[in-house]
Amino acid sequence: MGQRFDRSYFERARVGLFTHYTRATYADGKSTNWGGTWTSRDDSRGASSPEEAAARFDGERYAKTAHDMGAEYVVFTLAHAGFNLLFPSDTMKAVCPGKCAEKSDIIEKLLSGLGRYGIPLVFYLPPNDAHDINDEELKKMGWVDDAARMRFLKRLIGEIYDKYGRAIRGFWFDQGGPTADVCDYVRERDPDAVIFVNTGVTANTVKHPLSDFIVSEYYGSIESCDSDTLPTHYSQVNRQIGNWWASGNKAPTDARNLYRYSVRTVATVGQFNGGIAWSCGPYLDQTWEDGVRKLLGELGNLLRGHEGIYGTVPGRSYVTAPNALLEKTDWGVSTESPDGKTVYLHVLNRPEDGILSLPLPADGKTFVGAEHEGEVLLLRKTGNGYEITLPAPADCDPIDTVVRLVAE
């Protein structure tokens, strides 16, 4: 039996890949591509049609990238801006055939590639994105009012389930999301489907009533900053590496920066919403923006090389508050096993004297042992909490020294 990718899976997922791979819908007047994927790093032209975009996509190479970066799920843009569908949609062909791929099927490519690695696929759809569709196309699609758009969306979702079944694990709806009947229809077709509904670009604190999770779409990159100075949040968060789509940028940082931000997100109290999905994607020629592919692989190596990330929950003994920054004087953050018997201290800033001083656990735990990479560490209970003697600096990881605490 394979992994069941129901809502509880996404609730505990820690890292994802969020990709806008889109055909541009209009130009900025300078014959350069706007709002869509470039041909290559040296050619700013976009795809001439949805068919070209879908035909050039390599699902196996993309899936290998997602695997290498340690992604537990993928959110992929099936349509954006002008609602150009990257698969041969009978729903779209019946009304506006130029707005979907003719033969090439990006859904089949994604399912085949990601299936090799057991990575679930969620599709991004913008149910209210009519401003980039010209008036003639709007009339053909029947997008004359909100109700008509929702009827079209239900037909499209129905077609997807008819063709691909429950292999599609859910939908990430942008721009405030669809109406309740659309989400009800998704549940009817797949009771275990996951639904993300985005309502804004900043840290949302309230879950949309139709969404399974709190969602925040962060515009802005991690570029040119120390990620320790960025606030984390408990919503499902997307942060860019380069641009939303491949359009001439380059890797804006290093794997250390991405990893430490990922760990801090994982540790944030209330993070049961899908963690962080790093946002980037390939050019039409299937290369990536300069340095991004390498960066993703390095991030994956760090995520897999440190325990206490996958399969954990935010620390309950030592809590990381939402919107917290990591000051130079802060030792780090914590995660736990779901049963709370093992606490992982992610020591991101080693104290100069090598003694980690902790207050009493917020949840009243008692610790009976501490270790680092199999080495037993001196753990001493004090009147105010605990003290742990860390390994010598040469034996500590400057990115993340993980100390395992055993609860009684």
Low-confidence stretches are none
- Which radius of gyration do the C-alpha atoms yield? 23 Å
Annotation, overall tally of beta strands? 19
The CATH topology annotation of the largest domain reads as: TIM Barrel
Which strand order does the major sheet show? 7-6-5-4-1-10-9-8
Question: What's the architecture of the largest domain in CATH terms?
Answer: Alpha-Beta Barrel
Task: Please explain how this structure is put together.
The chain has 408 residues and is an alpha/beta fold. It has 2 domains: 7-305, TIM Barrel (Alpha-Beta Barrel), CATH 3.20.20.80; 313-407, Golgi alpha-mannosidase II (Immunoglobulin-like, Sandwich). Helices cover 25% and strands 21% of the residues. It has 10 helices and 19 strands. The chain has helices at 7-12, 50-56, 59-68, 90-93, 106-115, 135-141, 146-164, 180-189, 255-267, 292-305, and strands at 15-19, 26-27, 33-34, 73-77, 121-125, 168-173, 194-197, 215-221, 236-240, 276-279, 313-314, 332-336, 342-347, 355-359, 367-372, 375-376, 379-381, 385-389, 401-407. Strands 7-6-5-4-1-10-9-8 form an 8-stranded parallel sheet. Strand 6, helix 8 (180-189) and strand 7 (194-197) form a beta-alpha-beta unit. Helix 3 crosses helix 5. The longest helix is centred in the middle third of the chain and has 19 residues, at 146-164. The chain starts with 6 loop residues before the first helix and ends with a strand. 47% of the residues are buried.
